[in-house]
Amino acid sequence: MRRLAILSWFMLFVLLAAVRFAGSGLILASVSAPYGARIINALGVLMAGAAALLLDRLVRTFYWNGYLRYKRGRETPVVMQVLLTIALVALGVSIGLYFEAGVSFAGLLTASGATALLLGIALQAGIADVFSGLSVNLNGSVGIGDWLTIYSPKFSKPLFGRVQSIALRTTFLRLDDGRRLMIPNHVLTSNPVINHSRPLGAKRLSVEVPIARHFPAERAVGILLAEAYRAVRTRPLSRQHDPEVLIDRFSRDATFLHVRFYADLEESEPQIARSIMAAALNRALQRHGVPEPVRLMEFVAPRGALRDEIGEVRDALARVPIFENILNASEIETLVTTCRARSIAAGTTFIRQGEAGRSMFVLLDGAAHVSIVLPDGETREVAVLAAGDIVGEMSLMTGAPRTTSVTSLTEMRVLEVTNQAMERLLAAEPGLLERFSNVLAVRQSQLSEIASTSSQRQTLQRDILAQIRKFFSRAFG
Question: Residues 75-108: pLDDT tens digits?
């Protein structure tokens, strides 16, 4: 369709040129003076205008549509296209008038000065919009596809939306609820505007999290930071910068925390990114029993710093997947007496791939990332662990070398379960061997996705059972 338009303008240009130059003699002979010469001059001016419009059509087709839109993925604002068309036509007509009638462009400007003044006064608001749109495009501060927040006393609250197009007088925004808003261009240049899309790259967002005032703020910061590290591994959230958790303020009943993180706004709206992070943080708060602020007086059991360490260890062990529904209360108590929580500094690799392992870690607070070194030497992150997760269970039960490396992302508190503690359990209750091998086989098959049939799972369970028997052979004399 665009190529057909180019061909039409080209044919018009050729026709006007042919009549102007080849048919000038016939026109002069057929039309009395001075009208014949004026017709020829008018044809020359029209020919120059047609040449300008042909050039405009070529720019639209091959540069704005062919290069910018399809190759660069960028839209050209309407105001730029219209202004270029006006400029080319004005230039073409001026050239035609100069060669055909000897009228210079400066003369045209002088003659139209008074008219332009009157029009400028009458169309002051419209001209302001046009030049505002032009300035916005020339300085590159706003483009099609950008997310904007516009502050103006004319609005009851700041407007947030995505630029769909920029016309001569109006910028069109799509609001986050799907509605389309038309804003005069001068609003963009006369009011504060936040462009969330520029410069390119991930942008920082934040989520406010209120918790009960009596809950230790430092512990809440650790829980939220660990979960934020895990959440930013999910798109459209970004790992470009580490997340942060800041204590913002206190009230009589609540402590307000701000979780700051980064998201790629080219992939998603800010509100969706905040929702993803808020949902993850809410799950973490519920998992750890962090209380919400309350305005009514209530009596609650001591939590957080008032909780004894033995109770914390007992609760953590009871939630471990390989112990759950296998160990009874007395067997859990046996483990409690042999396990203690310990702290790990941020940036510490406490499990190294290939090293011999004889223990398992239960994460109480903080976050860690799991990585693996591939055969070609590349190190790849495969998971992020947060409070409540476990790592190293196969080394604990079979003595197998560590298959991954685990490094703390934040300060951490972990519970280490050693093979000596497990020996006491297995010596007292040999029947646990079968149950542990079944749980480990299911867990291992879920992680590796190699056991897709019942026979394969049974084979994997027998192999793990044999490894456990060999590793804990001392427990059975």
Answer: 666 666 777 788 788 888 888 887 777 776 555 5
SS3 content of the chain, % helix, strand, coil (to 5): 50, 20, 30
CATH number at residue 371: 2.60.120.10
Number of domains present in the structure of the chain: 4
Q: What is the pLDDT of residues 403-450, one digit of tens each?
A: 899 999 999 999 988 888 888 887 877 777 777 777 777 766 655 554
Range with the poorest average pLDDT among 14-23, 115-124, 277-286? 115-124
Q: Which residues fall within 8 angstroms of residue 314, CB to CB, at 6 or more apart? A: 332, 333, 336
Question: How many Cα atoms are found within 13 Å in the side-chain-facing hemisphere of 224?
Answer: 29
- Give the three-state DSSP class for 121: helix
- Please check whether residue 246 is in contact with residue 208, taking contact to mean a CB–CB distance below 8 angstroms: no
Rg (CA), the chain: 37
Residue 177 shares a structural domain with residue 216: no
Does the residue 105 lie in any domain?
Answer: yes
- DSSP SS3 for 200: coil
- Indicate whether 323 and 397 sit together in one domain: yes
- 368 and 324 within one domain: yes
Sign of the Cα torsion 233, 235, 239, 242 reads negative
Give Cβ neighbours of residue 296 (< 8 Å, ≥ 6 apart): none
Residues 184 and 213 both lie in one domain:
no
Q: How far apart are CA 306 and CA 303, in angstroms?
A: 5
Query: Do 238 and 176 belong together in one domain?
Result: no
Whether residue 55 has pLDDT greater than 80: yes
**CA-to-CA distance for 431 and 144, rounded, in angstroms?**
68
Q: How far apart are CA 259 and CA 231, in angstroms?
A: 12
- 8 Å CB contact between 40 and 28: yes
Return all residues near 133 (Cβ < 8 A) that are at least 6 apart.
Answer: 77, 79, 166, 167, 168, 169, 171, 185, 188
Same domain, 317 and 377: yes
Which H/E stretch holds residue 25? Answer: helix 24-30
- Return the pLDDT at 222: 92
| Residue 341 lies in domain | 309-428
Question: In terms of pTM, does the model score above 0.85?
Answer: no
Q: Binning pLDDT at 50, 70 and 90, where does residue 285 land?
A: very high
In the predicted model, what is the mean pLDDT of residues 225-230?
A: 94
